[in-house]
Amino acid sequence: QVHVVESGGGSVPPGGSLRLTCTASEGTRSPFTMGWLRQRPGKEREFVAEMMWSDGYSYYANSVTGRFTISRDAAKNTVYLQMNSLKSEDTAVYYCNVKLQGEGGTGYWGQGTQVTVAS
């Protein structure tokens, strides 16, 4: 069982920045991917960004490209999401997702962290 923990959410005004952190439990064998999804109020959960653990290749939703950056500390099984130029529509609960090599399904999820962008 992989334990996934997110942190770093909060409340910022439009144009502000936040950095989210996600760590998979110690001893987790090498991930296949680590990434972020979000659920905005009244909406379905949606993809935000993801990193391929083998080579660090990253990809993003169109809505966040150029504003959000995903990065990692591979030694700590940790991934970060730097969010700049935040907009009110970025308000959501952000979830970290970890998929392991050789496993199917939706992977492992954190408990979510709230990001609120408001004046």
Describe the structure.
The chain is mainly β. It is built from no helices and 11 strands. It has strands spanning 4-7, 10-12, 18-24, 31-39, 45-52, 58-60, 68-73, 78-83, 92-100, 108-109, 113-117. The strands form 2 sheets. Strands 2, 4, 5, 6, 9, 10 and 11 form a 7-stranded mixed beta sheet that branches. A 4-stranded antiparallel beta sheet has the order 1-3-8-7, with no helix packed on it. Strand 5 (45-52) and strand 6 (58-60) form a beta hairpin. The chain is globular and about 45 Å long.
**First-to-last CA distance:** 40 Å
Number of extended strands: 11
Number of helices: 0
**Average pLDDT over all residues:** 94
Taking pLDDT < 50 over at least 5 consecutive residues as the criterion, the unreliable ranges are: none
Strand content is over 45%
Spell the H/E element sequence: EEEEEEEEEEE
Quaternary organisation: single chain
Structural class of the secondary elements? mainly beta
Q: Judging from the principal axes of the Cα atoms, what is the shape? A: globular
- Summarize the amount of helix as a percent range: under 10%
Tell me about the largest β-sheet.
7 strands, mixed
- Rounded to an integer in angstroms, the radius of gyration calculated over CA atoms is 14 Å
Outline the secondary-structure elements.
Elements: E1 4-7, E2 10-12, E3 18-24, E4 31-39, E5 45-52, E6 58-60, E7 68-73, E8 78-83, E9 92-100, E10 108-109, E11 113-117
Short descriptors:
single chain, mainly beta, 7-stranded mixed β-sheet, 0% helix, 52% strand
